[in-house]
């Protein structure tokens, strides 16, 4: 009913709008007054966490994209090697797991069969499993050694939005906590990021306030057949998520590519007026990445692409090559997905509506896939 949707036409719109709160709620009570993380609920002792020599993340769909982003954070802040794998592929390839492997299973519903089977397999091999889950008391957390709940609240729309942002927050918390417990050389950076994370909900709010041009752009592209998405570093999984949303909702051909791979194939796809969404890393921090992606935008523009550029406020270098610029607030490099994903959700939702699709219940899809 309209009341359930809080005045929005679709649950998806309501859930997109709830993201600042979902993000804030997922941080609540997990950062102490001194700016350290207190994840006591993760019932794997600090001593055990110090022993871990590998992290393996398993998940499906949108949760898998959260896992891909987590890998960058975990390896950077903890120096522990981290693999990310689709849960449906994981156990069939005889993965190497033991007591020193921390397996992280990410699932909104906690009922996805592929993810459940992957975690069962991991535990049989002696690995410890930490679930990141949005549904209290669901099967995946019940069968795990520990759980860190995301506090997105119930997500009804089939395409995941607020659950994704909170999965990212939970992944950052785990990565930072591992770094904190293991006392890495990044201690100062970790403290700064914890501070930035506690302010990120306001940044998500600001993105939401500026989405009208994105909706307008989406409507103008409703007749297109294909949209490509490019990103690099953590922007690459964001590109994958943007493409997934468009497939799920708009039933359009959409692909996400690592921008550095452009020259190895995808650039052959570029033709006149093809919409290409590019997620641009911050010009501060790892500025090499920024410069490389600006040349990518230049390359595809020269071949006729219609460039839709998601870039940080104040990043003027992209302007000469962008047909459309979508501004996002400045964040530390690793946290950018929390703000960069939001315009892509809005874009897919509006495009789907413009094409007359049922946004909350896309054809052929289920909210939770409880069969293998
Ligand atoms: C289905 C849903 C996706 C979701 C995936 C994983 O495919 O349609 O939105 O990302 O399952 O679900 P989970 O509940 O495990 O996060």
Tell me what you see in this structure.
This protein is 43% helix and 15% strand. It is built from 14 helices and 10 strands. Strand 1 (54-59), helix 4 and strand 2 (82-86) form a beta-alpha-beta unit. The longest helix has 21 residues, at 162-182. The radius of gyration is 20 Å and the shape is globular. It binds 6-O-phosphono-alpha-D-glucopyranose. 6-O-phosphono-alpha-D-glucopyranose (G6P) is lined by residues 60-63, 107-109, 112, 115, 158-160, 365, 367-369.
Please name the defining characteristics of this protein:
372 residues, alpha/beta, 14 helices, 10 strands, 43% helix, globular, cytoplasm, glutamine-fructose-6-phosphate transaminase (isomerizing) activity, EC 2.6.1.16, glutamine amidotransferase, carbohydrate derivative binding
Q: Categorize the overall geometry.
A: globular
Helix percentage: 40-55%
- Separation, N- and C-terminal Cα atoms: 32 Å
Mean model confidence by pLDDT: 95
Helix- and strand-based class? alpha/beta
Q: Order the strands across the largest sheet as they lie in space.
A: 2-1-3-4-5
Order of helices and strands: HHHEHEHEHEHEHHHHEHEEHEEH
Radius of gyration: 20 Å
Q: Total strand count, please?
A: 10
The distinct bound ligands, ions and cofactors come out as: 6-O-phosphono-alpha-D-glucopyranose
Give the low-pLDDT segments.
none
State the oligomer. Answer: single chain
Fraction of residues in β-strands? 15-25%
Count of alpha/pi helices: 14
Largest sheet: 5 strands, parallel
GO molecular function, one term: glutamine-fructose-6-phosphate transaminase (isomerizing) activity
Protein name: Glutamine--fructose-6-phosphate aminotransferase [isomerizing]
Enzyme class: transferase
EC number: 2.6.1.16
